Amino acid sequence: MFEYSMIQPLFWMAIGLLTAIFFLGLRYWFQDLKIRMYWWKWLMVGVWLILLAVILGGAFTLIGENEPKAGVRFLLFFGILILLIGGGIWKIVARK
Predict the structure, then answer these.
(1) Which of 31, 41, 51, 69 keeps 20 to 30 A from 60, CA to CA?
(2) How is the chain split into domains, by residue range?
(3) What's the number of CA atoms in the CB half-sphere (13 Å) around residue 17?
């Protein structure tokens, strides 16, 4: 991504900080919706977010490697699949 310089560690520190802020905000959002979150619900949400990141990373890597057709197909197939799985996880998580 970057040649090794002072920017690279700062970039990853910023990504880590944004991830922590995201999960903190997610926690308060669930509290506002009065949804009780148990450890297994957090695990499902975390695994889903990791899979989403892997799918987006894989698709855009293919596009960046001059394989736009494969990248778009990858994104459409796995993107729709992960969105459907996310909807199912939301139904499980939103139960009170």
Answers:
(1) 41
(2) 1-34, 35-96
(3) 6
